[in-house]
Write a structure and sequence with these properties.
Blueprint lengths: L23 H15 L7 E2 L14 H15 L9 E8 L6 E7 L5 H17 L6 H24 L22 H11 L6 H21 L7 H17 L1 H12 L4 H32 L1 H5 L1 E5 L6 E2 L10 E2 L3 H14 L7 E2 L5 E2 L5 H10 L6 E2 L17 H23 L23
Parallel strand pairs: 3-4
Antiparallel strand pairs: 1-9, 2-3, 2-7, 2-8, 5-6
Length: 442
């Protein structure tokens, strides 16, 4: 997650630094200590439910705001690996016809190809509000654009032989996803062991075997048919994940006593959710634009320039030599700078949530929770000691003091967790789509 160039991330003078309540070196040493005691996973995966507001305005509902922000972040994260992380927040004008401002931040710079793709996504959503346009046709058009842009990433999720493994995964020996189906199918008998569940067991096995066959046959697809077959695979995976019987199987599987085999089966199902999510995202974005046509008729995209990485000599891993500003923190800082500016827009609804392509890391979760301005939707619980906050000269006194207080409070939480003793946790998946268990918003 390196950024060769970018905005200066450490521009404040010693007298105006945000590291006034806790020294940065002490902060990092405490992070490393907690990593060592918890396998760098201080807390379990957490997902928080949103409390929907009752509103008579045309403002996006909180649930729609989260879904749209999350889905746009997922689409903006085209690259693979750490560079794929993106975050989005939505600023809606008080006058709906004035439209929607979408701010997008990335771990690295969002390139021109990805920007052109996001512009086209917004144009399709704008067309939804026009009379005479078929929403089903627009959904298909949007899905086509999504699959074309994310084709290589989807092949990576499939671990397909048509995918060239990136250098950072050179030592990885994961087998193709279709080979994981055998283990998942075998787990069905453990979820439904009794004779009276035989019919249900057979139905779930049939669903799994049908999808497994489709996944295996995809590997023989000719190059000139790749796009259409991949689109069919995405659609079929979506229908599989939305199947009620499959959803109930997945829920019960996760409640079984964990074994390596069950954990592998659960992980395979989560990977299927990510593949089916491309269809869900096309469907849900069109549904949201249809429900709020005035808001989506005029969309303005704004991209944040990432901050430069900065050197550090304190890290858990010997190869870690730099600190980075995560995309979520970039958005929080940008919103605070905008709010403090004399040119702050008083005719807009402030963002209430930051959408992400992956769950929040442990430190972003703490930062946003303590900050208090945004709702915290989730966290995968993993700690990255290379995490930091930009120390800028342009902060006003209120913002500077606020960040200093937040960092001190994060440090208190970190120290308390270290003192409470070690609790080793396995490394979590850093992203989930929850497609098996969650309802679409359309």
């Amino acid at each position: 997650m390196s950024t060769a160039i970018g905005q200066p991330s450490r521009a404040a003078q010693q007298s105006t630094t945000i590291w006034s309540s806790i020294s940065e070196d002490d902060f990092r040493k405490n992070l490393v200590m907690l990593e060592e005691r918890t396998n760098a996973v201080p807390i379990d995966v957490q997902v928080f439910s949103l409390k929907e507001e009752v509103s008579n305005t045309s403002r996006l509902s909180l649930g729609v705001e989260q879904h749209v922000a999350d889905d746009l972040a997922f689409l903006a994260a085209v690259q693979e690996g750490a560079q794929s992380v993106a975050a989005v927040c939505l600023e809606q004008h008080l006058r709906p016809q004035a439209g929607l401002k979408i701010r997008i931040a990335g771990a690295d710079l969002i390139d021109e190809c990805a920007r052109a793709f996001m512009t086209h996504v917004c144009e399709v959503l704008g067309d939804v509000s026009k009379d005479g346009w078929c929403h089903m046709h627009l959904e298909e058009e949007l899905l086509d654009q999504i699959i074309k842009q994310h084709l290589y990433k989807i092949l990576g999720r499939l671990r397909s032989r048509k995918w060239e493994k990136p250098r950072y995964l050179a030592a990885s020996h994961k087998k193709p996803l279709w080979q994981d189906f055998e283990n998942v199918i075998h787990r069905v008998q453990h979820v439904y062991p009794s004779r009276k569940e035989k019919t249900y067991k057979q139905k779930v096995e049939n669903h799994l075997k049908a999808l497994a066959e489709l996944y295996q046959s995809f590997e023989e697809t000719a190059d000139d048919e790749l796009f259409l077959e991949l689109k069919n695979l995405v659609k079929s995976t979506y229908e599989f994940c939305r199947n009620k019987e499959v959803g109930q199987f997945a829920a019960q599987l996760e409640r079984l006593r964990p074994t390596p085999q069950i954990a592998a089966a659960v992980k395979a199902l989560h990977q299927l959710e990510k593949i089916g999510a491309y269809q869900r995202i096309a469907r849900d974005l069109v549904a949201s634009a249809s429900k709020y046509p005035d808001t989506f008729r005029n969309i303005n995209l704004s991209y944040l320039s990432p901050y430069a990485s900065m050197p550090t000599s304190i890290a858990h891993e010997p190869w870690a030599k730099t600190c980075h500003i995560h995309a979520e923190v970039q958005l929080v800082v940008e919103c605070d700078l905008q709010h403090a500016s004399a040119h702050a827009n008083d005719e807009s609804f402030s963002p209430r949530i930051i959408g992400t392509s992956k769950y929040l890391c442990y430190l972003c979760y703490l930062f946003i929770k303590i900050h208090g301005r945004f709702i915290v939707p989730n966290t995968h619980g993993r700690l990255y000691d290379q995490w930091t906050v930009p120390d800028l000269a342009e902060y006003n006194d209120e913002t500077r003091e606020r960040y200093a207080t937040i960092l001190a409070q994060i440090n208190e939480v970190v120290c308390k967790q270290s003192e409470e003793g070690a609790c080793w946790r396995a490394e979590p998946m850093t992203s989930r789509q929850n497609l098996l268990l969650e309802e679409s918003i359309g």
